Amino acid sequence: MKINSIPELLDHFKDEQTCISYFEKIRWPDGVTCPHCEHDKAYKTNRGYKCANKKCYKKFSYKSGTIMENAKISVRYWFIALYLCTSRKKGVSALQLHRDLRINKRTAWTLLHRTREMLKDNSFDLLKNVVQADESYFGGKLKNKHKNKRTKNAQGRSMKDKTPVVGLYEKDGRVIAFVVPNTEGATLKKLIRKYVDKNATVVSDAYRSYKGLEKEFKHIVVKHKDKENYIVDHKFHTQNIENFWSLFKRGYMGTYHYMSPKHLQRYCDEFAARYNTRNMTEQERFNYFLIRLDRRMTYESLVRGHKMAA
Ligand SMILES: [Zn+2]
Predict the structure, then answer these.
(1) In angstroms, what is the span from residue 243 Cα to ligand 1's centroid?
(2) What's the gap in Å between 32 CA and the centre of ligand 1?
(3) Beta strand 175-179 with 163-170: parallel, antiparallel or unpaired?
(4) Model's pTM, two decimal places?
(5) Labelling 7: which of 37, 166, 215, 278 has CA 20 to 30 A away?
């Protein structure tokens, strides 16, 4: 199978049954397993399966226990949404999906938000080696707002009008981003303590909230504002996390136009997921996230135990 474009995706997943079979192969590589009791034998029924365990006998389908459960959306549409969401650098909006798939706006919105659930980074691995830390602010475009709605000093580091997000990037590794209530020292340090390995070197700019970090980590401060004193260092800089913000912001402006503070974390997860799989082929990325339709499965557990569905 080769999926590097939308025509290839549609050619391969030509109908609903092909998609269901593909998903079943990924979900149950060793044969159908009951999601209620884990029994490994089941009878085929008209609409799905019935567990062969006498104590269970429950009916189930490929959808049971997955993100697709209780949503009346075809598997093919889930596949298309996942493909678009993971292969387009700046994401896909509900409005675009509503037009492209000719589904109603509410369905498109639900489909995308559930897809974002699949993109969430559930890894417990701490960030190691050299870790860049930086914060950014997301909110409505200032110039489009009516004057009296603007917050004074909404530029720069003031967050009165915007939602702050903290990003951590492990050099040559992955990025994680979190919506935070504020960018006070205590908030930033708490996050860094939670997600960064004690032996790592943390690189940040000279923002006051990072002060004191040197007591717990090796801390390198990169100066930005003062051009004359800019530290030219190929090893220690915050360029990667800044690149991530700029990609995120281009997506915000170009694709979504608006992200509510309530859902901003999901967008953080979505942009981080794409960034972290940037070296995969489109197909690898598609399979990597497809497995997460089953909430309990991870890609790692699958490739460790079984061969990938062809
Ligand atoms: Zn069962």
Answers:
(1) 48
(2) 11
(3) antiparallel
(4) 0.80
(5) 278
